[in-house]
Specification:
Blueprint lengths: L10 H24 L3 H27 L7 H13 L6 H25 L5 H22 L7 H10 L1
């Protein structure tokens, strides 16, 4: 089932939710990487690093609003549990899920970028850019492109 974008009208609440999802997402992709090998594992570890980069970018914004994420251990555990449910999922199905779901995340990040104060938009734009890179990877990977990791590597070279 294709994910539908959530609607946001509260910038700080969305910022906090996204920061928490990045913590869980890092653990999710890292756990998924343990179920795969070679290039597939590398791709998932790159996605985990991207989640970490975005989470780190969010921290100063959260501090500015005096917001604290839920317990990081619990968030990581939730991400790992979500990944565990996909332990036997074939690679092509996982990539297909990414191509179906990631556009909704891009829409969500675009909403929050529009809500962001002007002086915070550049940081929030990094959230969207990481999802765009992840979707580009998934589309290239689904198409059998041997250079599918390039969008992930470019994002990390620029922001990591």
């Amino acid at each position: 089932m294709t994910r539908t974008a959530r609607l946001f009208d509260d910038y700080s609440a969305a910022l906090l939710l996204f920061a928490e999802e990045e913590i869980a997402g890092e653990a999710y992709f890292a756990r998924l990487a343990s179920f795969h090998s070679g290039r597939q594992s590398r791709a998932l570890l790159l996605l985990a690093r991207m989640e970490s980069v975005v989470g780190a970018a969010a921290r100063p914004l959260l501090a500015g609003y005096r917001l604290a994420t839920a317990d990081a251990t619990a968030l990581r555990s939730a991400g790992q549990t979500e990944a565990d449910a996909k332990a036997g999922m074939p690679w092509r199905d996982l990539v297909s899920e990414m191509t179906a779901d990631f556009p909704a995340f891009i829409e969500e990040f675009e909403q929050v970028e529009r809500l962001a104060p002007a002086d915070e938009r550049a940081v929030v734009r990094v959230f969207r850019k990481h999802e765009v890179a992840a979707l580009e990877f998934a589309k290239l990977e689904a198409g059998g492109n041997a250079d599918s990791l390039a969008p992930l590597e470019r994002f990390l070279a620029e922001h990591g």
